[in-house]
Specification:
By secondary structure, chain A is mainly alpha-helical. Chain A has 14 helices and no strands. Chain B folds into two domains: about 150 residues, Response regulator (Rossmann fold); about 170 residues, Response regulator (Rossmann fold), CATH 3.40.50. The longest helix of chain B has 22 residues. The chains are: A mainly alpha, B alpha/beta. At the A-B interface, helix 1, helix 12 and helix 13 of A face strand 7 and helix 7 of B.
């Protein structure tokens, strides 16, 4: 294994690229969950975003439209979840699971005509800097715009939840919908908005996979990343910054263990394969031990059905 | 009155439907481990199914069935719903297939790449993919500049280890300095993970990449990085036109048609089939001219020799990693040894995950 600085820089760049879908999906789901809604349909919304983005890219030949379209499709499919859980008061868990199954099936059906079409090159920014600056170049430059957005998002989310009025309202709804409702807040409207936002972010996460990371459409291409994003939100105790840390650790160890195998280190491969999951959980549990903060961040009404008594 | 009448009609229709299913039409079921759109392993099995359909036999399929408890449920469901012949197309379906076969003695089962035939209604079939791997090894050994060949492996089963060994032996023959680096991804199909594995191997110095996984992601990574690669299961050339030297193609169609017709006509018998280049179950996609006409000719000759039996992928002397002899000089590995292969040959780095 070569240990020169530039190589480590390239490695870190690769790790960042691999954690983008997790960051996007988890940040979206985090807002949804903070409003008290548990949407297990992350995987389904991601895969719908992936196929919509790819299909639009093929049809319109325009990457900008493809990215926007993937967010809109994620949003549209999350409306189904919203109507069922918020207006028809169905169980969150069951509805979310159904949404995932629906999304996977639906995407496969739409995708039938898009199998086997090679993707398009997605423009990367500051490629010159990447090659000319050792170490820092491959870390900071030569990425897609979505990656930069993904790395800003947890900080924006953190600010939004803690410092803005709307953020406060969302947290209030998540903690006690009844009290919020008595204060005159339209709980259903707030929750709808958060569900839609989560859907859009999951759609974007899917598009990142089908347009940038592995630019093509293949069935089931999200490969369980939606479930990992869901787990990240819980283990990060609903803190956006910890979601970012968790996603980086998960992506980092996934890639490092592949390198360790290629080098031929004599560590059981099964252990190496399990390492990303184990380490992410350990680290997140250790950094979120503060029980006061956990209480503060946990949306108390998560997954509970709310309806306003007339 | 009206309600009762409706009930009678429905129950009569229902029984007509059931009995019609059992007697009149012959049906073949397929169980797939991946989606039919994977453009690799499952895609090729589905091409085989389409050929059966074209021969005038009704087929159904269930895709993306995980290897495990789900598999048994799906196979049982197919057997219960009137399928007369069921193809289970992944190694991990071996035990579930035999379990269900016991309960449905009148249904015929065909399991791909396995070795268990516990009941008289279970056949097994596989292709000698390792013959294709020998050709890949020859090309890889000649094309590599760094002398490092990267191999993305799925699960540590004989099938996969055989491929790694066949490739390494052939590559060593033309280039004694080569090293095979292996990354195990423990999945047949995860484009993201497969591409990360390919990238890791390239970063570790591999300039030829091959895969025993099913998606087209690794060849695309190779194309981007400017290294050589090989397609898996179907012709993946259009995903990496510059990088792909050839693809190993699985052609199940003739076998599926033959066995389906045999089962329909009552001539189906239990058997263990292992076909290769000779019978056409393993085929090679057109060779990339970028490797030079001399090498193309060499490989074409080797392909002919493998098909005719003049050359064998596992010709002695073959040593394991510790230097113990596996196959003596002058002899070739027999099918029993190939089927149960669970050690690396000399020159492969690392250990087999246990």
């Amino acid at each position: 294994m070569s240990f020169d600085l530039n190589f480590i820089g390239i490695l870190i760049g690769a790790i960042m690229a691999s954690s983008v879908p997790l960051i996007l999906a988890a940040s979206g789901e985090l807002i949804t969950e903070r409003s008290g809604v548990l949407n297990l349909g992350v995987e389904g919304m991601m895969i719908i975003g992936a196929i919509s983005g790819f299909a639009l890219m093929v049809i319109t030949d325009n990457l900008f439209l493809a990215v926007i379209g993937s967010m809109i499709s994620g949003l549209i499919i999350s409306i189904i979840f919203g109507v069922l859980t918020q207006s028809l008061l169905t169980n969150h868990v069951a509805t979310g699971l159904a949404l995932t199954i629906f999304g996977i099936g639906m995407s496969a059906m739409i995708g039938k005509n898009f199998v086997g079409i090679p993707g398009k090159e997605f423009p990367l920014l500051f490629v010159n800097f990447k090659e000319n600056i050792p170490f820092l170049g491959p870390i900071l430059f030569g990425h897609s715009i979505i990656l930069y957005f993904a790395f800003l998002l947890p900080f924006l989310t953190n600010y939004f939840l803690k410092k803005t009025k709307i953020g406060l309202i969302i947290r209030a709804v998540g903690d006690s919908p009844t009290s919020a409702s008595n204060q005159g807040i339209n709980v259903t409207l707030v929750r709808y908005s958060c569900i839609l936002y989560g859907g859009a972010m999951c759609g974007l996460a899917g598009a990142y996979l089908s347009l940038i990371y592995t630019p093509q459409w293949i069935e089931n291409m999200t490969g369980g990343r939606g479930w990992i994003a869901l787990a990240l939100v819980v283990f990060a105790t609903w803190s956006p910054i910890k979601v970012l840390i968790g996603a980086l650790i998960f992506g980092g160890i996934t890639i490092l263990q592949l390198h360790m195998q290629a080098v031929g280190l004599r560590i059981p491969v099964q252990l190496l394969s399990a390492l990303p999951y184990i380490m992410t959980i350990i680290v997140l549990v250790v950094i979120s031990r503060d029980s006061r903060k956990i209480k503060l961040n946990t949306p108390t009404s998560l997954g509970q059905i709310f309806y306003k008594e007339k | 009155m009206y309600k009762n009448f409706l009930r009678y009609v429905i129950s009569v229709l229902f029984f007509l439907g059931v009995s019609g299913q059992a007697n009149a039409d012959f049906k073949v079921g397929f169980v797939y481990v991946g989606p039919t759109g994977d453009h690799g392993w499952t895609y090729q099995h589905d091409e085989g199914r389409k050929a059966v359909e074209a021969a005038g036999i009704k087929t159904t399929y269930v895709e993306s069935v995980p290897e495990g408890a789900d598999a048994e449920r799906v196979i049982r469901q197919l057997a219960q719903s009137g399928h007369d012949l069921i193809f289970t197309t992944s190694f991990g379906y071996m035990d579930p297939t035999n379990k269900v076969a016991k309960d449905f003695p009148n249904v015929k089962f065909e399991h791909a790449t396995g070795y268990k035939r516990e009941h008289s209604n279970v056949s097994t079939y596989s292709a000698r993919f390792y013959e294709g791997r020998t050709l890949l090894g020859h090309m890889a050994g000649k094309m590599t500049k760094t002398n490092v060949i990267g191999y993305i492996a799925s699960f540590p089963i004989p099938e996969v280890i055989r491929g790694i060994n066949a490739m390494t032996l052939a590559a060593q023959k033309v280039n004694p300095d080569i090293k095979t680096k292996i990354v195990w991804v423990f999945t047949w199909y995860d484009p993201g993970k497969e591409s990360e594995a390919a990238q890791a191997l390239i970063d570790q110095g591999a300039d030829v990449i091959m895969q025993h996984t099913d998606s087209t992601a690794p060849v695309q990574v190779a194309e981007k990085a400017g290294v050589w690669s090989f397609g898996q299961a179907s012709d993946m050339q259009r995903f990496a036109p510059k990088s792909i030297l050839t693809s190993i193609i699985d052609d199940w169609a003739p076998y599926y048609v033959e066995r389906s017709i045999a089962a329909r006509d009552g001539t189906w018998k239990q058997q263990d089939t292992w076909h290769g280049l000779k019978e056409g179950m393993v085929a090679m996609a057109p060779y990339n001219s970028a490797m030079g006409t001399d090498l193309v000719k060499e490989v074409e000759q080797l392909q002919k020799d493998l098909a005719s039996g003049k050359t064998h992928s596992f010709t002695g002397p073959i040593y394991d990693q510790k230097g113990n002899i596996l196959v003596a000089e002058g002899s070739v590995a027999d099918d029993g040894m190939l089927a149960g292969m669970n050690v690396y040959v000399k020159g492969v780095e690392g250990d087999i995950p246990q």
